[in-house]
Amino acid sequence: MQAPHKEHLYKLLVIGDLGVGKTSIIKRYVHQNFSSHYRATIGVDFALKVLHWDPETVVRLQLWDIAGQERFGNMTRVYYREAMGAFIVFDVTRPATFEAVAKWKNDLDSKLTLPNGKPVSVVLLANKCDQGKDVLMNNGLKMDQFCKEHGFVGWFETSAKENINIDEASRCLVKHILANECDLMESIEPDVVKPHLTSTKSGKVLLIYLQVF
Amino acid sequence: QQSKTSSQTNKQRRLCPDISFFQRATEYPCLLILDPQNEFETLRKRVEQTTLKSQTVARNRSGVTNMSSPQKNSAPSSLNEYEVLPNGCEAHWEVVERILFIYAKLNPGIAYVQGMNEIVGPLYYTFATDPNSEWKEHAEADTFFCFTNLMAEIRDNFIKSLDDSQCGITYKMEKVYSTLKDKDVELYLKLQEQNIKPQFFAFRWLTLLLSQEFLLPDVIRIWDSLFADDNRFDFLLLVCCAMLMLIREQLLEGDFTVNMRLLQDYPITDVCQILQKAKELQDSK
């Protein structure tokens, strides 16, 4: 077997209202199991998933599972930093959680952009599709339209319980991030106006500036 | 194309407190409420009929049901563990739910915030498993009293608008780091260099008084020390520092991902060692 040539490390966020199944999705994806016991996430949880993307490429995903309750809203800015993509999750059995999707998307876009100023790739997950109550999902065309309007790169009906579409959704997101990264390289190189475009560096420069003055 | 996946196994912190206890029936249910003669609107009805359309939300809203029991994955009945018990019986989680519900009603400014269940759980467990039946019998009232008093001291952690004030959680998180800087500057600089913010782990440590980081008996042991100390919430900061310093060699070697996993799934289970270290830090002031 050939050794991988390329390694990518991406920070991905998983956000959405409370109780929609963010933690369960990650648990299914990373640990291949499911528990019906609910336990609220306080602040943030962290998990790692390694994908052997193709024979030459390994993709490491840092999954940031962010608490959904409104109370933790002040914390999100610091959790979002330097993420390359996100899943926004809602619960198909609770319409209110779908109504909150646009709110989460706006929150994300207002606090996080790629180094080139563009929004990060976001995939929408319609979770708990095993429950048979997915009144919202009857109209796939509407969902496509919604995604277009709100700038999602795609959407999937998922079930953490039955392990439906989670791998597929993740592959979709990673595919877009990889494509974005190619764009990013191209857009950054000729740019002489903003020399500190890689976000960690610009962040540090700013920090030093603040400390000096 | 199929991408082959692999993942690291890790210990499942989220299922830490092994307390199937909360799903069992209490010997001392609230008879007044359970008596069908009295037409009280019970939480069972209220919770089912109002906001709680799906079972998951019901668990979520009630908070206490969050007290999940681990190692049940193999049991086929595990899906039914939160079904309400037959009329005339009350599960312990329903008692705790009532405590939280009443607290939320009496304190509308705070109401219910996720995580309060993790504070009330160890208190209730301690009373409700007391060997003396007189103590057991009054577990609900005693827990309510203690929870209210404890919350009077720590409620600022649960109030979003206070996050950035002098009494809020952000200040406390920064205090952990400034104390660490004092006690172990090399480790402090390492965490800074890797951009590991206290929000990434210490938020949960502090808000929940470490109740999600250790097994229930160990949580109770830690709380004993926290509550016994005159400056107990200063002592909590020292306990957090001790936890960091006890794994300093691993943290100094690890990269960001390794270190995040260490801090999110804290590896040391011997809480006496941690408390001893915290005491040392306190004495070395």
Uncertain segments of chain A of ≥5 residues (pLDDT<50)?
191-213
Q: Averaged pLDDT of chain B, please?
A: 81
Spell the H/E element sequence of chain A: EHEEHEHHEHEHH
Radius of gyration of chain B, in Å, reads 21 Å
Note the overall shape of chain A: globular
Rg calc of chain A: 18 Å
Mean pLDDT of chain A: 85
* Beta fraction of chain A: 15-25%
Can you summarize the main beta sheet of chain B?
Answer: none
Helix/strand structural class of chain A: alpha/beta
Describe the model.
The complex is a heterodimer of chains A (213) and B (285). Chain A has 213 residues and is of the alpha/beta class. Helices cover 37% and strands 23% of the residues of chain A. Chain A has seven helices and six strands. In chain A, strands 2-3-1-4-5-6 form a six-stranded mixed beta sheet, sandwiched between helices. The longest helix of chain A has 23 residues, at 166-188. Chain B has 285 residues and is an all-alpha fold. Chain B folds into two domains: 2-158, no CATH class; 161-283, Cyclin A, domain 1, CATH 1.10.472.80. In chain B, helix 4 (92-106) crosses helix 7, helix 11 crosses helix 12 and helix 12 (232-246) packs across helix 15 (271-283). Chain B is elongated and about 65 Å long.
Give descriptors for this structure.
heterodimer; A: 213 residues; alpha/beta; six-stranded mixed β-sheet; B: mainly alpha; Cyclin A, domain 1; Rab-GAP-TBC_dom (chain B); small GTPase binding (chain B); TBC1 domain family member 13 (chain B)
Q: What topology emerges from the helices and strands here?
A:
The complex is a heterodimer of chains A (213) and B (285).
Chain A: E1 6-16, H1 22-31, E2 44-54, E3 57-66, H2 76-80, E4 85-91, H3 95-99, H4 101-111, E5 121-127, H5 140-150, E6 154-157, H6 166-188, H7 199-212
Parallel strand pairs in A: 1-3, 1-4, 4-5, 5-6
Antiparallel strand pairs in A: 2-3
Chain B: E1 4-7, H1 31-34, H2 43-49, H3 55-62, H4 92-106, H5 116-128, H6 133-137, H7 139-154, H8 169-183, H9 185-193, H10 202-207, H11 216-228, H12 232-246, H13 248-253, H14 256-264, H15 271-283
Helix pairs in contact in B: 4-5, 4-7, 5-7, 8-9, 8-12, 11-12, 12-15
